[in-house]
Specification:
Elements (H helix, E strand, L loop, with lengths): L5 E3 L2 E3 L6 E7 L6 H14 L3 E6 L2 H4 L8 E4 L2 E4 H7 L4 H14 L2 E6 L2 H8 L6 E3 L7 H10 L3 E4 L5 H10 L5 E5 L15 H9 L3 E5 L5 H8 L4 E5 L17 H18 L11 H7 L6
Parallel strand pairs: 3-4, 3-12, 4-7, 8-9, 9-10, 10-11, 11-12
Antiparallel strand pairs: 1-2, 5-6
């Protein structure tokens, strides 16, 4: 049975629908609102359908044994706990992000990493939520999202099939989409395993997309040719910027090329029904013997 499309905002996402392209901002803004708004502009200008952020409550997400580990950051040497607060946006910043996305006509949502962050994001009535691969086994988070009932995009990197089955079961009743991913940054092509898009669609019967962490664009476009109905790539102002996700991210010019190529490939896929196109009829009449038009 072909997966049924899921409504995300004003868009229907699934087979035979335009690919839903997500620019993953994550924390590539480095805690700077101006960077975040510039990345929204880059995504909107490139033709993305949405941008995505990450939201954490450091009190819940930073393990006790990691809080006092010192880390070199753009703001100097500080504890990992202080750093996690430094890159988190609060209501004031998200109010501006929400208003700016509305002005630019682009969806926005986030990956909450804990139930408190779900409560925080609910004030914005997001079009959906994304569960990061790292959170696929976080049963408390999945329960909080199931209770809210908004569409959920579940990323499946670093997960076994049994773990995916359990998470899907915990989100029963929620409009669900899966995202194939390999959680290596950057990921070598030999570990992308793009045929998993078919495996997930066949077993779970829901729309399946692709979240890429590779360098380059061609394998992401290939995922679309294999049937990915969503595509997510990390985006950045400059891959040389400080931050763990920057090197596996796409810069503005690359993002514009990626969205362009996704749209071209989607158009080229067609419907699989063999026809003789009007543009072929003159060629057919010229090159074939004893064939009427």
């Amino acid at each position: 049975m072909e997966p049924q499309a899921v409504q995300i905002g004003t868009r229907s996402v699934g087979p035979d629908q335009p690919v839903y392209v997500i620019g993953e901002i994550g924390i590539n803004h480095n805690g700077d609102l101006a960077n975040a708004l510039a990345l929204v502009d880059i995504a909107a200008d490139a033709g993305c359908d949405a941008v995505k952020f990450q939201k954490r409550d450091p009190e819940l997400c930073v393990p006790l044994d990691q809080r006092d580990i010192l880390r070199d950051t753009p703001w100097g040497r500080m504890t990992y706990f202080d750093y996690r607060y430094k890159v988190e946006f609060d209501v004031e910043e998200y109010d501006e992000i929400a208003a700016h996305c509305k002005d630019r006509g682009i969806d926005w949502f986030a990956s909450p990493w804990d139930p408190n962050s779900v409560d925080f994001l609910e004030r914005y009535e997001p079009v959906c939520y994304k569960v990061a691969s790292a959170s696929l086994t976080d049963h408390e988070l999945l329960a909080a999202l199931a209770k809210v009932g908004r569409p959920v995009i579940l990323s499946t990197g670093m997960s076994t099939m049994d773990e995916i089955r359990t998470a899907v079961g915990e989100l029963a009743g929620v409009p669900l989409l899966l995202m194939h991913a390999t959680s290596t940054y950057p990921c070598p092509p030999a570990e992308l395993n793009l045929r998993m898009i078919h495996t997930l669609a066949d077993e779970f019967g829901v729309p399946v997309g692709y979240s890429g962490h590779e360098t380059g664009l061609q394998t992401t476009v290939a995922a679309v040719a294999l049937g990915a109905c969503m595509v997510e790539r990390h985006i950045t102002l400059d891959r040389a910027m400080w931050g763990s996700d920057q090197a596996a991210s796409v810069e503005p010019a690359g993002l514009a090329r990626l969205v362009r190529d996704i749209r071209v490939v989607t158009s080229a896929l067609g419907d699989g029904v063999k026809v003789v196109y009007e543009s072929e009829i003159p060629v057919r009449a010229k090159l074939r013997r004893n064939v009427s038009s």
